[in-house]
Please model this.
Amino acid sequence: MTRTPVKITYIGGGSLNWATKLMADLAHDTTLAAHVRLYDIDHSAAVRNAVIGGRFGDVSKGTPATYDVAYSLEEALDGAEVVVISILPGEFEDMAQDIDIPARYGIKQAVGDTVGPGGFVRALRSIPMMLPIAEAIRDYAPSAWVCNLTNPMSVLTGAMYRAFPGIRLWGECHEVTKLRHQVAWIANQEAGELRYGHRDVRVNVLGINHFTFVDAIGLDGRDMLPAYRAFADQHGNSGWTARERDPDDEHDNYFMDRSRVKFDMFRRFGIPAAAGDRHLAEFVPQSEYLDTAEAWDFTLTPVSYRIRDRAAKRKAAAALAAGEGKPAANRSDEALVDQIKGLMGLGDFISNVNLPNRGQIEGLPLGTIVETNALFSSLGVTPLVAGRLPDSLLAIVADHAARQTALLDAVIGQRWDDLFDLFRTDPLVAPLPDDTARQMFNEMVQATSRHLPDALLQEAS
Model:
């Protein structure tokens, strides 16, 4: 069987999470012959992952992907057909400040990487990191297809389009997969057997990253919206999970929710919410869900857990690179390999992605980064018309989208004195008195000062 060659550059190639998912998915695939070039500012981490990638080759179901390491962005991008970007903006210790400082002012955040005070300051750190990457793609691989996996997704996807308007980029997020898993579970319960998976479920996605909704659900030619409505009504008060949390598993305790926020938003707005509860709750005033997170059956994930988890993953990765254990060519829930196959002409593929609004969502300005479905084919990434959100939802989405766009404008234009006024209007920050909000903003900016320009630090001093 002929395999289709593809050259993939992975920026952030020392990743302990997304890079190994890609390795497993490539090992599971039987149609691509991938060469993956790993680049990371932590060169040793990229070297480790190249060794791990070689080990996945031993269990590959098709042509084993090959892996090597680049020492510069220019070298990494040479000849790239697909570029994947998965970087950590700063350190987890910076993210801890994004969470802990607002907490001292009474602001709760479940994630803190997209909106709210944490998402805002994370964007201040990460926009200057992403702009030179986009410029390097412009200079060395302008025709490559580019997938951004880095949060805050909307702002950073927009930043790369600003730096290189001709970039062929989409932002990739797996949150919608959670709803699709629920729909497949409903159908399997009705069928009395394990007949469907989440990839069999079709949804029409509308929103912005981590605040996504669907107004149509299909499976095997059937309209599943009535069945999902009955499911949400049945479990709205008690919540639902496909399996119970393991109380001894920290990941379960901090990341599993019971979809009660999701179900409640369906009741309030009339269409199902797609993202997970921890993200959805941060887009609305704190009094709605975050103040009573335990009652809504979700957890505010502490960064201390992320740091412990990173240490455990580093240990496991080092062991795998040293030849211990055996990697498994198990397909993940991620859509990236399917998207690449679509672009390589190996079958059209539809999935939700983040792109500039070219009319796919009615009621939001053109150019706003929105999340809707797109078609991946040999013709490229074609956004699909999604329609219009209910007015009550559209107002929330439009408010956040406008703030994200204005934040990007201010950073690129170096209008540092605009930033506090934008920060002040986020729903989680808005209840604070002006002087308290200003004090918190200044403290957060100073806490991440090594990643910020001097002019901004002077404004926040």
About this structure: The chain has a mean pLDDT of 96. The radius of gyration is 22 Å. The chain is about 45% helix and 15% strand.
